[in-house]
Specification:
Blueprint (H helix, E strand, L loop, with lengths): L5 H16 L20 H9 L6 E5 L5 H9 L2 E6 L2 H13 L6 E5 L2 H7 L4 E7 L7 H10 L1 E12 L4 H13 L6 H6 L3 H5 L7 E7 L5 H4 L7 H11 L11 E7 L2
Parallel strand pairs: 1-2, 1-4, 2-3, 4-5
Antiparallel strand pairs: 5-7, 6-7
The structure holds S-adenosylmethionine.
The site of S-adenosylmethionine (SAM) has 19 residues, from α1, α3 and α5.
Amino acid sequence: MKIMNNTADFYDIRGNNCFEKNNLQYGIESFKPHVRTPYIYRKLQQFKSITDLKTIRLVDLCCGTATHSIALAKMGFNVVGIDISPKSIEFARYLAKQHKVDAQTSFICEDLNNWLSNAQEKFDIAFMSGSLHYFDRNYFFTKLIEHLNCGGMFTCVETFGGNHLMNFRRKIIASLKPNFRDSITLDGLLKYKEIVNFKQYFDHTEIRFFDFSTLIGVFLPSIIYPLQLTQKIDSVLLNTFYMRSLAWKYVFCGRIN
Ligand SMILES: C[S@@+](CC[C@H](N)C(=O)[O-])C[C@H]1O[C@@H](n2cnc3c(N)ncnc32)[C@H](O)[C@@H]1O
C-alpha cells in the first residue's frame, strides 16, 4: 500500500538517495566527528552490565534508514524499527542484511500514530532520534507508555528548537536548498518548555543539552580540535540556565516503574 503523506514522500526521496549512494555507514560513525552526538547510546550501554541484551526488546521509533537500528542490533539488542517512509524501510532492510543483523532486526512501514493506537506489542526500551516534533506529544506519550513493560525506558536524541542561531541558519539553508528540511522540522522543533513537559509522563527523567563548542568543527573542518574536551565544556555550559539556548541537541530519558 502506498502511504500518501508529505513527510513520507520527503523521506522517500532520502531513502532513494541512500540506495543511489549505497552508503553503508551506521550509528555515530555516520555523523561527522564534530557532531557525533555524545550521550546517544550511553544510557543503553548500562543495560549491558545487568543483563543479556538479546533478552531486551527495543523499538526504534521513526527509524528512517535504520542507521541507529543497526548500531543497536550490533550492540546486542533485538530491534524493531518503525517508519512511515516505504523507501527508508526498504533501505533499512537492505542495510540490516549488509551488516548481517537481519536476524536481530525487523522493520514495519506504518504511520507511528496508527501503530501506537493499534499494536499490541510491548517493549523494554523505546528509542527515537530526530522525530519527536512530528507528533502531538500528549497523544504520543500517553500511548507510548502502554507499549512499555514495567521498568521500561524511553530515550530520544533530538534537535533543540530553542537555539535561535541554528534556527536562523536552518531557514537560510532551506531557502537556498528546497529539499534541505521538511516544513514540520523547519517550524516545529521543540523548545525548552515543551521538553520539560515530557517529565510528567514518567517516574524518573533526565535531560541533557549538548553540542555548542563541538560545532566549531562545522565551520573550521580542517583544524584539529580536541573533541572530548569541547564535549566536556558543552556538558557543563549548556546545562546551566543561561547557556542552554546555545545547545544544538538534547537527550531525554524517561523511565516508568
Ligand atoms: C529526521 S528523520 C530520523 C530518522 C532516524 N531516526 C535517524 O535518526 O536517522 C525523521 C523520520 O521520522 C519519520 N516519520 C515522520 N513522521 C512519521 C510518522 N507519523 N510515523 C512514522 N514515521 C514518521 C520519517 O519518515 C523519517 O524517517
